[in-house]
Amino acid sequence: MAEALVLQLVKGQNRPYHVQGVADMLATKGVKKAGAERALEALVANGSLVRKDFGKQKMYFPDQKGLAALSPEECAAKQAALQQSQAACREQEEAVTALRREAAAAGSVLSLEEMRRQVAELTKQKEQQAGKLAALRGGGARLVSAAGVQAAEKAYQAMFDGWARCRRQFRSVWDCVSDGIEGKEEAVFEEMGVETDKAVGADFEGAKALAQPLKKARTALAPLRR
Questions:
Q1: Which residues form a coiled coil (predicted)?
Q2: pTM surpassing 0.70?
Q3: 87-116: per-residue pLDDT in tens?
């Protein structure tokens, strides 16, 4: 079975093949490399194919004895037919590519049911936002002026800067006096009555993360206020 497939391929193409090339071409028909090599050698042994060795590479091709040589006109005609076939193949490939693009585009378009669900969700969100806006306009919430916001931000930043300054000052003093003190720092602080951020549930890093955007916003808006 493998010999027939290999012979049909090599003779049909009438061109040299190596073992891996035959195996690749006939892989879909279950012919593996070892089977392709056995079939090629068997066909060489019975005279159906010819083998030429080029170093470690072995090439197999049909025996050309007895074949009539083509005239220049016949060669030109076959070359023209080949070019036409290649052009037709390119056109078919382009058509297939275009169809794949259309299929991909069609797959990305929402179905009618999906569009209805999306519209319903957007309508629901719109109603929720409208309710919040109505509550604000109706006096249900206290509106803060821009000046009030700026004052609150400034006060927050001042308090945070003071907190950071106190931390630095304490750490500087503590590093100087704690050289000979034994025991874990946390236990020593507790014994001395020092209230750390952790002890009172204060989140310095969280406060810092909140302060940074406010500081950047003020820096960006400073030129606009002049």
A1: 82-132
A2: no
A3: 888 999 999 999 888 888 777 777 788 889
